[in-house]
From TrEMBL:
This is Tetratricopeptide repeat protein. It comes from Nocardiopsis eucommiae. It comes from the Bacteria.
């Protein structure tokens, strides 16, 4: 999680103990706006109150509201994913998927399947991730949610790049690029697409184009203080400059290592140091 994003986390009021239907209903009325805010922030990788989500899960069970429970478990999964607990996140997404299927809620099913794909992607099981993303597509309405479809194209493109299927990746990423670049521009997702396009172009040995995409990506993340993504772009730039025979390629890795240390991601920082002399 980016440290600069934590300070902007929405404030919440949590009633942890509710007694009877009246208090349960009051809790729901009081906290529903905060839950919706948590959902929006979780989608962008920001901090979410674990206490609020645990209280929400308790309330959903008390109400017997499986639809709400599915949503809350999905948010819990996002929190665990953000914390790097892939196994815990996947358990919550499996549970939210089962509840969504019981409710017949295609939108919730799509969200849970996509999240399970992200877990697989983070765990370097990219073919499994692609298989899960394939299950998402028929549950989505591309006319109703073009942004959601574009995110799916971005995620697929990321796994396709990792698998070395660069042409197919660029097809997906170009489609996503058009959506995110259209007004109102989605600057963060546009920067994410440019990062993956840079990786794909570098894989095709089109170094000049790759560098251009990565520099635009870096500028987009720097403008919004997205530290983790800045570090990842620096890693990709190190690969581009090394292939080009430039002597300063290590400088990008040094900066990536510094950025990871800045946010307390020592595991990633150690990984980067292993590449440095």
């Amino acid at each position: 999680m980016d440290t600069d994003q934590k300070k902007d986390t929405p404030r919440t009021t949590v009633l942890l103990d509710v007694e009877g239907p009246e208090e349960t209903s009051a809790w729901m009325r009081t906290n529903m706006d905060s839950l919706r805010a948590c959902a929006r922030w979780a989608e962008h990788g920001s901090g979410v109150s674990a206490d609020l989500l645990e209280a929400s899960l308790h309330t959903a069970r008390r109400l017997g509201d499986t639809g709400l429970e599915a949503w809350v478990r999905h948010l819990l999964g996002l929190v665990l994913l953000d914390a790097g607990d892939l196994a815990g996140a996947d358990r919550e997404f499996v549970a939210s998927l089962a509840l969504a299927e019981a409710e017949g809620d295609d939108r919730a099913r799509a969200a849970s399947l996509e999240a399970r794909g992200v877990v697989a992607q983070r765990d370097r099981r990219d073919q499994e991730a692609l298989d899960l993303f394939d299950l998402v597509e028929p549950l989505r309405n591309p006319d109703g949610r073009p942004g959601g479809t574009a995110v799916l194209d971005l995620l697929r493109g990321r796994s396709l790049v990792t698998l070395g299927r660069f042409d197919h990746a660029l097809e997906r990423l170009d489609t996503a690029l058009m959506v995110f670049a259209a007004p109102p521009v989605d600057e963060v997702n546009l920067a994410r697409v440019r990062l993956e396009r840079g990786r794909a172009l570098n894989g095709k040995r089109r170094g000049g184009e790759a560098r251009g995409e990565l520099e635009l990506s870096l500028a987009g993340f720097e403008a919004r203080g997205h530290t983790v993504q800045m570090a990842r772009v620096r890693e990709a730039l190190a690969g581009v400059t090394q292939l080009a025979g430039e002597r300063n390629w290590r400088d990008h890795l040094v900066e990536a290592e510094r950025l990871y240390r800045e946010i307390g991601s020592e595991t990633e920082a150690r990984r980067i140091r292993s590449f440095l002399p």
